[in-house]
Amino acid sequence: MTKSRRRPTRPDPSTGSGSPRARSRGENVERPIRAASVRRASPPGGARRASSVDDVFFRHIVTGMRNGVLALSADGKLALINDEACRIFGISPQASDLGRPVAEVLRQHPEVVRLLSSVFELHLLPNRAEMRLRPSGKVIGYTVAMVRNDEGRVIGASMFFKDLTRVEQLEERERLRDRLAAVGEMAAAIAHEVKNPLAGIEVMAGLLRRKTPDAPEAQTVLSDIINEAKMANAIVQEVLEFVRPIRLQVEHTAVAGAVQAAVQLADTKSRRGGINVEVNVPQGLPLINGDQHQLTQLFTNLLINAYEAMDGRGNVRFAARAVHVDDGMDGREAVVVELADEGPGMPQDVADRVFAPFFTTKAQGSGLGLAIVRKIVDAHDGSIDLETAPGRGTVIRVTLPVRGSEEGV
Which CATH class is domain 11-163? Predict the structure, then answer.
């Protein structure tokens, strides 16, 4: 039987699929790929180009791509890297990097170096895989493909990738939303069942107190019962508020107005004492697409938390500024609001859990105030950060995009 000649399979450069087993590094290679080097001709079935298009045109295509592109020669040296790849990896574009070992150029990303070092030994090349970069924490989606010459011999490898950090954040937020929805249904049912007997206890204790005006000890006990019932009812209200989905009433909102309203509202809900509140929020900040009521609630909860930590003395400062946030795509305009207090601060293990539901260090409290803050921030497609240390106070930064999501959590 006559053996049929098997034509070398040419991988699709956009997906990296269909790649045959690559030769080892010891094979005979023609020459390293240069940034401006483009194949002159193709065998039947391969990629073609107009004869009038020169190498510079193809180099500009790679340079202008919105995805990261990286190529290395068979001896492990960098042959091509575009500006988007440099941005994702956090390195400065240097012409001198071409021809250097990839392990040197990307020494801050050992996970990428390990992948590229082993690519010539792989039977099945990664296609649409994901990787988290250290230490930046960025998530990239990538595809690896072999680079072959006109005769089908492997002369290098290429990696095409895209920053998926923003996509990963949205997916994680969606997973959290699903979990909260399930927990919320259960918690809401329990809370409603608890509220009814609590109301009955409070009413009956009040009636009994009015019927026993001449019994001081009974009056004291009944007053304690009423106060505890009210406190339990307040906690149930906070639970209901936390598990209830947020439906934003989105409008063009001034952050300065929400902060001023929060200062007034916090004074009615918590003892301020001798604490001085400074507000430095410019009126000319960009209007954000947000819910005025929810943002006021957000800043009120933060301010109440500061009041309770400062024991009636010290300073609290509100400040805000406009920024451009890198979100892994084109970036977006945002407003950062900072609240800094002169309280006792907190250790790192407490700071790591401070936004978790039902976590509190107070003798009395539901542990939901800051959890609700995070939920409101997430509903506005924003982010929140905390900087603190024992004895050094606390700074909380809330970043709210000018154009955010209009869907609630």
Answer: alpha beta
